[in-house]
């Protein structure tokens, strides 16, 4: 799979091309022209980005060969168009990108030659030779990076040469190739045209435009191609199907052998049909590659190529994700909650301001965000590229507070009205009070169409708001240009940003500015080494020397490379689209970790809240248990209760409460001492309840504090039972006592044998009953025996059980009331909803499915 | 090496800090406590070391030109400069005037190979810098610095810090957020060198200096001293040197630095533990509160109830002894409910209940202690409140037991029988006998006149009979009267005993509560008071 995917990428021109910026260690000071070449080489080099700076000699050669391969075919074109100008260098690079698409490059020559020279075999050979020659001719220009990847291709070519006939076969390949072939010519023409234009930097844009137009044709080419190519029309019928599948699929096969194949097919477009059988035979072989490629192809394609259902499904999935993310509430200020909220805000902003618009309108111009440290020269760079003072520059740090977007007038509408970064208010020109929540949109023809530059606030100044805005901009970027300086390239914030880019898989280019020419070599070498150690060695790099800034701009010569790079992007629609797609994919991939991270935090909050609640429950359960224990082990019968009981018994009231039955003597006024005894029991129970509640509340707060800082904050003011507790407890117990008397009076109908002889005072009896209940001794002791004799064991047990459970219930209610205060404190802090986390996971999963 | 003459003020403040540290554990945030400790150690160390030397550190971001400035000031290429970032990874030191500097450099942990002395090479014309130890720190903002705290450490130790800024980096968050905003109050020992001034035009430089000044003021540096310098052209180096020379000559930087550190720490301490009304919190348990506690504990033991019970039970029981027997006998004829329930033996047991045992109810004891702690710690910081509660409760698990044991010793014996009860009983039975005898005499005199023995014959006369009757009636009356009277005596005695008992119980309860509750609480209150006093003394 991996290799397959690699292949796919190789073919897709965008990625690596970009990554291979000329700034190799050795190349630093080299001529721009070289860079251009490198760009070439790099594009092909695709495969092995990590290319060591010193490719083996052969490697270089091959690389050169590979890179030149395309050029060779072109030569004719150039010749035709008459473009001998020096600028061609510039022009070529620009075009090459398009050439790079191997099909295209091969096809280019193919179509032209094909008609005149039917024998395809000869051609390929020729081409191969030519490339080799060319490599010899231009060994130096090739970028060091390029070679490695190239190695494979050339080799493959050689190896497959013999097979060519077979290879040629794939009908699929042919048609597809054919299309690229068509492009090829266009490309060539445009290239030549550009070459002229390019001569002067100012000319550039136009060249780019022309390139654009042609490149625009590309997408449509697939279908129109058949029509266009009369010669290939036959094939196209078959080809169409294949094309429809996916352009990428074709490219992948190219990796090595395919390269070959395509060339041939093109050359002998007609032959294909003849070889239909062979094609089929090969198909299985191919099928493997396409299979691998298909995966990547699909992925890449989703952004653009599969508009209807896929995009719709993706949009729907993203919409759901957006809603789920928007619904999140992190009420508890747990450690990490701020980060989670920030991540949430970022995700939302990114979904709304970038991903959704990008998925809906994938053909939109690419947004290139220029980010970096304060004072790195972002605004100066943007001004220089725009050839217009669009963004304020100066010595004050931080300089830029309001993002400035520069684009071609044709693209202005999209950026001024589009959904991209829709949350930012659009301004036509900088306003002093604009702040970071708005964005200035400026159009200039000096920028090529299809790419827009966004100058952002810094990432590391004292104004922290800027960091956030800059990150938001980066979240919406299709490509990142990271600007740092010779003085800053080791700064921690800069590397944090690079780390982020790496994590997100964002397409990245690095500009090292303010380089003193005399120290350039050392600095660059060091920087490149750091980058390489960091795994970013193959990223496009540009060096800008420290130069006199006039009127907020650098000398134009300093940014030629960048300009070229932009022009390439502008011209090569496909490459741009690829870059856009990759970044989008990177962002979508990042959702795999970022969204679940949010969900995890939410779950953490839910768990934390559950823990806090369980703390409350445990504490009050403990309190209830304490009361229970006290009511059973006799510890209630201490202090005043004990004294009163002794008094009650010793003063004869106990015996007096029993009366031998006589008429008219049943209802006796309760004596003072009985009331005192009752009050003592009430006070005793109350004390037990209050003590238990005190302990429970303290325990809750202590547990909460122990759990976290937040727990301590939440528990503030809750370390004592509510003021009402004593009152409520008193009331609850009084009514329980009433209830008990009632029970004794009604349920406790005395044994018939007893009731004939003795009447009793229910109030006193209920007190005796209480003492019996609380004394804890089982069935022994005075109160037990007395009550037992009076009411019978049966009803003693019955009433006892009822009374106890009633007491428990009442105290339980009291404690519930108390614990509600904590629950309320938790609730007011925010109720994380468990189901939201599940929805998040679901949404993430759905998104993966939709992709 | 002379000991630094501390300005009056620093020493008492440091000793106040010592007290804060002493009383802080468990009450003060651990981090703050560590910082206070560190500062204390640092101050102690620094004050012990050479006061003749002033440690000046060049700090700043990578690439701002610290090493260049270092070399420019020292006039030698001592610290390597370069274009690679970061350049300096180890601190370099240059000393003007070596004697006494060694221990200081050791304390700063400067490696030997990075120590340089200007004593020999530069004594010419550099006398005003004599006593300067100039440090070239590594940067604090590069990716290297993420794993290296050397710059951090030395910025904290140096007497005077020169922040080397440059036009590119002067507004970096890494410098300002992490250090400058922390420096409020350090104006006197902080200098900002705006290096690389040569990269700017005159106007730009002026604008930038203004901007930097504004920025610093916004961050709390009241009087920023900003010196534009250029290590390349040498511009401004002299003014920087003179700024440093002034500080070195005054020999005050170390003290000022410590004072500023102390000030900052004090701010943070008082933010964490606001002084507020803390000092007006009680530092001991006053009489009213002790009384309150004793009352509550007495209730928990049931002292009043015990007294009442004693009174009532005595009254009830005494009637068996001192009451007039006839009504008692008469009441026995009333049917006994216990007997009718066949629970006669229960009567004994009921009497057995009233043994007069005393015990404390632990829940009420806990509540009493809690109430005391609540009342004392009302306005305190939560941490101290918890402390007071813990102190109050420190022995509360033994408290009910102790109370019970202590009071049981003096608990009234409700079932005891005083001797005079027995005497009275005898007396009443004597009366009963007299009455019966009289009755018999009377009966004999009436029924068998003349048959009485001669000794009784005296009054054989029927005329005397009424007198006999009268006598018997008065015996009855005497018995009833003495019954009532002695009952009153019992009650009177009981109530007097109750008073005595309650007084004694209160006394014992108070004694127990003092040792088991009040004393630990007072210790905590004293600590609280001492802590806040120290905190107050910490501020100048």
Number of helices of chain B: 20
Radius of gyration of chain B from the CA trace? 47 Å
Helix content of chain A: 55-70%
Radius of gyration of chain A: 42 Å
Structural class of chain A: alpha/beta
Distance separating the two termini of chain B: 28 Å
Helix content of chain B: 55-70%
* Regions with little confidence, pLDDT below 50 for 5+ residues of chain B: 1-6
- The end-to-end span of chain A amounts to 18 Å
Q: What oligomeric state best describes the polypeptide chains here?
A: heterodimer
* Sheet with most strands: strand arrangement of chain B: 3-2-4-1-5-6-7
Verbal overview:
The complex is a heterodimer of chains A (about 850) and B (about 550). With about 850 residues, chain A is α/β, with parallel strands linked by helices. Chain A has 36 helices and ten strands. In chain A, helix 25 links the parallel strand 7 and strand 8. In chain A, helix 1 packs across helix 16 (about 245-265) and helix 2 (about 15-20) packs across helix 3 (about 30-45). Chain A is rod-shaped. Chain B is of the alpha/beta class and about 550 residues long. Chain B has helices at about 10-25, 30-50, 65-75, 100-110, 150-155, 175, 200-220, 235-250, 255-270, 285-300, 305-320, 325-330, 335-340, 345-355, 360-375, 380-395, 400-410, 420-445, 455, 465-540, and strands at about 55-60, 90-95, 115, 130-135, 160-165, 190-195, 225-230. In chain B, helix 16 (about 380-395) runs antiparallel to helix 20 and helix 18 (about 420-445) runs antiparallel to helix 20. In chain B, strands 3-2-4-1-5-6-7 form a seven-stranded mixed beta sheet, with helices on both faces. Chains A and B meet through helix 24, helix 25, helix 28, strand 9 and helix 30 of A and helix 6, helix 7, helix 10, helix 11 and helix 13 of B.
């Amino acid at each position: 799979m991996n290799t397959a995917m690699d292949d796919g990428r190789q073919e897709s021109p965008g990625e690596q091309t970009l990554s291979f910026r000329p700034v190799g260690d050795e190349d630093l000071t080299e001529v721009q022209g070289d860079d251009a070449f490198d760009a070439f080489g790099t594009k092909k080099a695709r495969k092995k980005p990590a290319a060591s700076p010193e490719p083996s000699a052969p490697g270089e050669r091959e690389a050169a060969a590979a890179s030149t391969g395309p050029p060779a075919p072109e030569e004719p074109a150039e010749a035709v168009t008459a473009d001998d100008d020096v600028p061609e260098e510039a022009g070529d690079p620009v075009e090459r990108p398009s050439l790079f698409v191997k099909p295209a490059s091969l096809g280019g020559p193919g179509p032209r030659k094909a008609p005149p020279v039917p024998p395809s075999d000869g051609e390929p050979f020729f081409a191969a030779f030519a490339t080799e020659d060319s490599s010899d001719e231009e060994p130096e220009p090739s970028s060091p990076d390029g070679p490695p990847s190239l190695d494979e291709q050339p080799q493959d070519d050689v190896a497959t040469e013999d097979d060519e006939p077979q290879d040629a076969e794939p009908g699929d390949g042919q048609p597809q190739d054919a299309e690229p072939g068509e492009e090829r010519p266009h490309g060539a023409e445009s290239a030549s045209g550009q070459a002229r234009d390019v001569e002067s930097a100012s000319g550039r844009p136009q060249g780019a435009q022309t390139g654009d137009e042609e490149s625009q044709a590309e997408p449509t080419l697939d279908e129109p191609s058949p029509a266009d190519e009369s010669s290939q029309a036959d094939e196209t019928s078959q080809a169409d199907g294949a094309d429809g599948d996916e352009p990428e699929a074709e490219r992948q096969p190219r990796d090595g052998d395919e390269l070959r194949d395509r060339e041939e097919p093109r050359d002998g477009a007609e032959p294909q049909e003849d070889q239909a059988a062979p094609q089929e035979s090969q198909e299985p072989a191919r099928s493997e590659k396409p299979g691998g490629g298909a995966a990547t192809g699909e992925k890449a394609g989703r952004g653009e190529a599969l508009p209807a259902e896929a995009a719709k499904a993706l949009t729907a999935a993203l919409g759901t994700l957006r809603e789920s993310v928007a619904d999140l509430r992190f009420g508890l200020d747990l450690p990490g909650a701020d980060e989670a909220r920030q991540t949430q805000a970022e995700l939302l902003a990114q979904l709304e301001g970038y991903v959704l618009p990008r998925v809906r309108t994938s053909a939109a111009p690419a947004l290139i965000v220029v980010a970096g440290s304060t004072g790195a020269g972002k605004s100066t760079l943007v001004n220089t590229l725009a050839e217009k003072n669009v963004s304020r520059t100066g010595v004050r740090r931080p300089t830029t507070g309001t993002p400035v977007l520069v684009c071609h007038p044709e693209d202005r509408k999209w950026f001024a009205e589009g959904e991209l970064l829709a949350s930012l208010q659009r301004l036509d020109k900088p306003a002093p009070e604009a702040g970071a929540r708005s964005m200035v949109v400026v159009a200039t023809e000096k920028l090529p169409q299809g790419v827009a530059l966004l100058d952002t606030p810094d990432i590391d100044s004292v104004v922290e708001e800027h960091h956030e805005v800059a990150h938001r901009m980066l979240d919406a970027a299709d490509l990142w240009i990271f600007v740092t300086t010779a003085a800053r390239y080791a700064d921690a914030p800069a590397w944090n940003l690079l780390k982020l880019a790496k994590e997100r898989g964002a397409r990245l280019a690095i500009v090292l500015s303010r380089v003193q020419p005399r120290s350039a070599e050392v600095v660059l070498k060091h920087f490149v080494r750091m980058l390489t150690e960091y795994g970013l060695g193959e990223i496009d790099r540009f060096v800008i020397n420290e130069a006199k800034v006039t009127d907020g701009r650098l000398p134009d010569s300093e940014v030629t490379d960048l300009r070229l790079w932009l022009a390439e992007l502008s011209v090569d629609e496909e490459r741009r689209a690829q870059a856009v797609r990759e970044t989008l994919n990177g962002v979508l991939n990042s959702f795999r970790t970022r969204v679940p991270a949010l969900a995890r935090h939410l779950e953490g909050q839910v768990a934390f809240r559950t823990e806090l609640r369980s703390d409350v429950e445990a504490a009050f359960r403990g309190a209830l248990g304490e009361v229970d224990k006290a009511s059973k082990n006799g510890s209630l019968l201490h202090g005043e209760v004990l004294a009163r009981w002794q008094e009650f018994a010793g003063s004869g009231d106990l015996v007096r409460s029993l009366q031998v039955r006589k008429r008219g003597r049943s209802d006796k006024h309760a004596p003072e001492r009985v009331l005192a005894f009752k009050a003592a029991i009430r006070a005793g129970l109350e004390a037990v309840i209050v003590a238990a509640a005190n302990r429970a509340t303290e325990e809750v707060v202590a547990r909460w504090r122990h759990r976290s800082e937040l727990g301590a904050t939440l528990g503030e003011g809750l370390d004592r039972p509510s003021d009402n507790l004593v009152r409520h407890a008193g009331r609850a117990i009084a009514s329980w006592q009433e209830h008990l008397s009632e029970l004794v009076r009604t349920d406790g109908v005395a044994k018939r044998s007893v009731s004939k002889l003795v009447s009793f005072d229910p109030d006193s009896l209920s007190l005796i009953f209480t003492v019996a209940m609380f004394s804890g001794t089982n069935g022994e002791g005075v109160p037990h025996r007395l009550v037992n004799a009076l009411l019978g064991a049966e009803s003693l047990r019955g009433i006892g059980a009822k009374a106890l459970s009633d007491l428990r219930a009442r105290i339980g209610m009291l404690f519930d009331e108390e614990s509600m205060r904590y629950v309320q404190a938790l609730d007011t802090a925010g109720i994380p909803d468990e189901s939201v986390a599940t929805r998040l996971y679901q949404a993430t999963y759905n998104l993966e499915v939709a992709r | 090496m002379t000991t630094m003459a501390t300005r009056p003020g620093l020493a008492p403040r440091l000793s106040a800090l010592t007290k804060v540290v002493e009383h802080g554990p468990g009450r003060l945030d651990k981090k703050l406590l560590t910082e206070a400790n560190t500062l204390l150690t640092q101050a102690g160390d620094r004050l012990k070391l050479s006061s003749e030397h002033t440690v000046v550190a060049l700090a700043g971001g990578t690439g701002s030109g610290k090493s260049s400035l270092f070399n420019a000031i020292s006039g030698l290429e001592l610290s390597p400069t370069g274009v690679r970032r970061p350049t300096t990874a180890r601190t370099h030191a240059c000393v003007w005037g070596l004697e006494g500097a060694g221990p200081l450099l050791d304390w700063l942990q400067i490696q030997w190979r990075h120590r340089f002395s200007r004593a020999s090479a530069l004594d010419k014309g550099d006398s005003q810098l004599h006593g300067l130890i100039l440090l070239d720190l590594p940067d604090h903002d590069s990716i290297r610095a993420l794993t290296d705290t050397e710059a951090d450490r030395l910025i904290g130790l140096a007497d005077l810090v020169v922040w080397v800024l440059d036009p590119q980096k002067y507004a970096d968050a890494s410098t300002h957020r992490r250090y400058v905003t922390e420096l409020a109050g350090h104006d006197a020992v902080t200098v900002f060198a705006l290096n690389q001034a040569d990269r700017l035009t005159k106007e730009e430089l002026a604008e930038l200096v203004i901007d930097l000044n504004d920025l610093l003021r916004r961050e709390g540096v009241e009087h920023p001293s900003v010196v534009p310098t250029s290590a390349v052209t040498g511009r401004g180096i002299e003014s920087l040197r003179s700024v440093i020379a002034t500080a070195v000559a005054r020999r005050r930087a170390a003290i000022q630095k410590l004072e500023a550190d102390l000030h900052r720490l004090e701010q943070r301490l008082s933010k964490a533990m606001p002084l507020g009304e803390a000092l007006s919190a009680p530092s001991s348990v006053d009489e009213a509160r002790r009384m309150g506690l004793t009352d509550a504990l007495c209730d928990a033991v049931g002292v009043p109830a015990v007294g009442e019970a004693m009174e009532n039970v005595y009254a009830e029981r005494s009637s068996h002894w001192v009451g007039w027997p006839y009504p008692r006998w008469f009441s026995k004829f009333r049917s006994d409910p216990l007997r009718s329930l066949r629970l006669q033996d229960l009567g004994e047991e009921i009497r057995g209940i009233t043994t007069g045992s005393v015990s404390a109810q632990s829940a009420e004891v806990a509540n009493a202690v809690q109430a005391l702690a609540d009342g004392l710690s009302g306005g305190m910081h939560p941490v101290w409140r918890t402390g007071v509660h813990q102190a109050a409760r420190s022995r509360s698990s033994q408290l009910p037991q102790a109370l019970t044991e202590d009071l049981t010793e003096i608990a009234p014996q409700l079932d005891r029988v005083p001797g005079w009860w027995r005497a009275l009983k005898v007396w009443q039975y004597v009366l009963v006998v007299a009455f019966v005898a009289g009755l018999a005499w009377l009966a004999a005199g009436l029924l068998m006149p003349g048959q009485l023995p001669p000794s009784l014959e005296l009054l054989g006369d029927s005329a005397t009979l009424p007198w006999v009757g009268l006598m018997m009636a008065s015996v009855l009356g005497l018995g009833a009267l003495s019954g009532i009277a002695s009952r009153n005596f019992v009650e009177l005695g009981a109530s007097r005993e109750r008073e005595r008992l309650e007084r004694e119980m209160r006394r014992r309860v108070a004694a127990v509560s003092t040792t088991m509750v009040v004393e630990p609480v007072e210790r905590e209150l004293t600590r609280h008071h001492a802590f806040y006093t120290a905190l107050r003394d910490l501020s100048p």
